[in-house]
C-alpha cells in the first residue's frame, strides 16, 4: 500500500483493545471525530465486522453530506479500517486505525488515503467546502486523536 495522504499518531494510556472498541463503533467514533457526525448500519449489519457497511453522516460548518463505508479490517486491538464511497459507489477514501502496545497503553496511528478520481474532486470539494482535502484531513486527524485520547483515558 502507498504512503497515506494524511496521518497522525498519539500515545494513549489505555490498552489497545479499549481504544479499538471506541474507533470500531461508528457511533462512538462520531463523538470524537472532526467531520464525521453519525451513522446507521445498512445491509442487515449491526456491528463492526469485515464486510459490514454503514451510512456515514458528515458535517463541516453548515455543509452536510453522506457516504457509504465498508469495513475492510476488524482486528481487535490491532487494526480497524474502512473504505468510503460516495454517489454511485465512487471511491472517496480509505481510513485506517493501527494500534501498537506502548508501556501500559498504546500508540494509535490514524491514516487516510485519498481515493477520489481527479475529475470527482471538484464536485466533492464544492459539497464539503474543502479544496485541500489532505491538509484538512491532517488537521482533522490531529483533532480526532486528541479527543480520542481524552475519551479513552477518562473511561479507565
Please provide a written account of the structure.
- The protein has 156 residues and is α+β, with helices and mostly antiparallel strands.
- It has one domain (6-154): Alpha-D-Glucose-1,6-Bisphosphate, Chain A, domain 4 (2-Layer Sandwich).
- Helices cover 31% and strands 41% of the residues.
- A 7-stranded antiparallel β-sheet has the order 1-7-6-5-4-3-2.
- It is globular.
- The termini are far apart.
Strand content: 35-45%
The tally of helices reads: 4
**CATH architecture tag:** 2-Layer Sandwich
Number of E-state strands: 7
Cα gyration radius (Å): 15 Å
Low-confidence stretches: none
Gap from first CA to last CA: 34 Å
* CATH fold-level assignment: Alpha-D-Glucose-1,6-Bisphosphate, Chain A, domain 4
The total tally of domains equals 1
Approximate shape: globular
Major sheet description: 7 strands, antiparallel
The helix content is 25-40%
Which strand order spans the largest sheet, edge to edge or round the barrel?
1-7-6-5-4-3-2
Give the ordered list of helices and strands.
Answer: EHHEEEEEEHH
Structure classification: alpha+beta
**CATH class, anyone?**
Alpha Beta
InterPro entries: Polyketide_cyclase/dehydratase, START-like_dom_sf
Protein name: SRPBCC family protein
Pfam families: Polyketide_cyc2
Amino acid at each position: 500500500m502507498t504512503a497515506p495522504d494524511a496521518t497522525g499518531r498519539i500515545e494513549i494510556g489505555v490498552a489497545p483493545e479499549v481504544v479499538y472498541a471506541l474507533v470500531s463503533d461508528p457511533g462512538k467514533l462520531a463523538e470524537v471525530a472532526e467531520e464525521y457526525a453519525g451513522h446507521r448500519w445498512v445491509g442487515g449489519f449491526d456491528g463492526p465486522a469485515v464486510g459490514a457497511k454503514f451510512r456515514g453522516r458528515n458535517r463541516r460548518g453548515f455543509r452536510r453530506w453522506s457516504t457509504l463505508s465498508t469495513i475492510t479490517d476488524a482486528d481487535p486491538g490491532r487494526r480497524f479500517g474502512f473504505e468510503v464511497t460516495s454517489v454511485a459507489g465512487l471511491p472517496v477514501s480509505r481510513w485506517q486505525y493501527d494500534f501498537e502496545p506502548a508501556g501500559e497503553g498504546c500508540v494509535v496511528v490514524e491514516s487516510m488515503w485519498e481515493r477520489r478520481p481527479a475529475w470527482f474532486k471538484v464536485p466533492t470539494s464544492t459539497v464539503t467546502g474543502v479544496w485541500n482535502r489532505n491538509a484538512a484531513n491532517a488537521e482533522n486527524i490531529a483533532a480526532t486523536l486528541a479527543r480520542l485520547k481524552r475519551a479513552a483515558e477518562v473511561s479507565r
